[in-house]
Write a structure and sequence with these properties.
FAD/NAD-bd_sf, 2 domains, 10 helices, five-stranded parallel sheet, 379 residues, FAD/NAD(P)-binding domain
Length: 379
């Protein structure tokens, strides 16, 4: 009987898994011994990291999108029919249309979502760049900005862990190029007692902030925003005035994970080396959907997807496990509009950001163009 692989989620993680499996299991799919099916929410695939560039006019909106059908291997049936309930006990997924898909192996790659509505006043008073509408509104706000106090407010959890630092440095360069930096003040807030969750990254950021005159407020867990008074207040009792509030909204997992009782906050408990759902032998978790204490980033999803591809292929072809995931993450870090650095780390090796350079910035821009090859699993 044919082995059925079902992938829930049509973002980067799910797409890489599907495309990689098609190459590794080409013969089995051609003979009918293996089938791969994907359930998604949209006919469009978006390059989410590109949203960071939209507010600064450094990327066009059209560059962010391609039809999902052109990114995904043609052998994979793709259904725009979001999963409504995942029944891991009976190995079945029910969609919003009422259809049910059974499986032998399931890959859950449903991603994360922003929840600015979880903080009172944030929707009305804040700007962000984590979706296209937010990035557009922030672009308009920056175009109109003529100086004043900017609060760059970070909430956790969130995806792309270096993005708050990137937007801060890019903002500084943008204000300088616009000629309003001298009459502007940037204050960066973070929920814990340093500038980033990863201690080496936080230590690297301190002198960079000092060099650029960026202020910071740590132990700032956002309580609420007052759009009328233009203030943001923390649970610790600190209130900051602002003329422009740029926020990294808190994120949660998708509703289907909550409705299926698969994990608190929409994050599925995941075994860190196998990427199997804890207690499962046939359910893999990939990308933002995991509860692993590592970065929710595109590179994380890519390295996890590669591991899942190898293991599913090995299980189907040889009945054995292939390898473990070592927690590898690699992130380019924009340190302005024209310079960048990078961090890489895994479960045992901490990150060590190097000096910013224009060359690394160019590498990041090159990767922006190569993303579509990555999504197709060719990089």
């Amino acid at each position: 009987m044919a082995k059925k692989i079902l992938i829930v989620g049509g973002g980067l993680a799910g797409t890489i898994v599907a495309n990689g499996l098609c190459r590794q299991l080409h013969e089995e799919m051609s003979s009918g011994a293996v089938s791969i099916t994907m359930l998604g929410t949209s006919d469009t695939h978006m390059y989410q990291p590109g949203l960071l560039y939209i507010p600064f006019g450094r990327m066009r909106e059209a560059e962010l999108f391609r039809p999902q059908r052109k990114v995904l291997n043609r052998k994979v049936p793709y259904h725009i029919d979001p999963a409504k309930h995942i029944d891991v006990e009976n190995k079945a997924v029910t969609t919003e249309s009422g259809k049910t898909y059974d499986y032998d192996y399931l890959v859950i790659a449903t991603g994360s979502r922003i929840r600015p509505d979880n903080i009172p006043g944030m929707v009305e008073g804040g700007h962000w760049f984590y979706d296209l509408d937010g990035a557009r509104k922030l672009r308009e706000a920056l175009d109109d900005f003529q100086g004043g106090k900017i609060v760059l407010n970070v909430n956790v959890p969130h995806k792309c862990p270096v993005a708050p630092l990137e937007v801060t440095f890019m903002l500084k360069d943008f204000l300088e190029s616009k000629g309003v930096l001298d009459n502007s003040e940037i204050t960066y807030t973070y929920p814990i007692g340093r500038l980033h969750t990863l201690e080496p990254v936080a230590a690297w950021a301190v002198p960079e902030f000092e060099k650029h005159g960026i202020k910071s407020e740590t132990f700032f867990n956002t309580k609420d925003v007052d759009p009328a008074a233009k203030t943001i207040t923390s649970e610790e009792g600190t209130t900051l005035p602002y003329d422009l509030l740029i926020t990294i909204p808190p994120h949660t997992g998708q509703q289907v994970i909550l409705d299926s009782d698969l994990g608190a906050g929409g994050w599925v408990p995941t075994e860190r080396n196998t990427l199997l759902r804890e207690g499962s032998s046939d359910v893999f978790i990939c990308g933002d959907t995991t509860n692993l204490p590592i970065s929710k980033a595109g590179s994380t999803a890519h390295f996890e997807a590669d591991t899942i591809i190898d293991n599913l292929t090995s299980l189907i072809k040889e009945g054995r496990w292939a390898r473990h995931y070592d927690g590898k993450v690699f992130c380019f870090v924009e340190t302005g509009l024209n310079t960048g650095t990078y961090v890489w780390f895994n479960y045992t090796t901490p990150p060590n950001p190097g000096p910013p350079s224009q060359m690394i910035h160019w590498f990041k821009l090159a990767y922006n163009r190569l993303y579509w090859l990555s999504a197709r699993g060719l990089l």
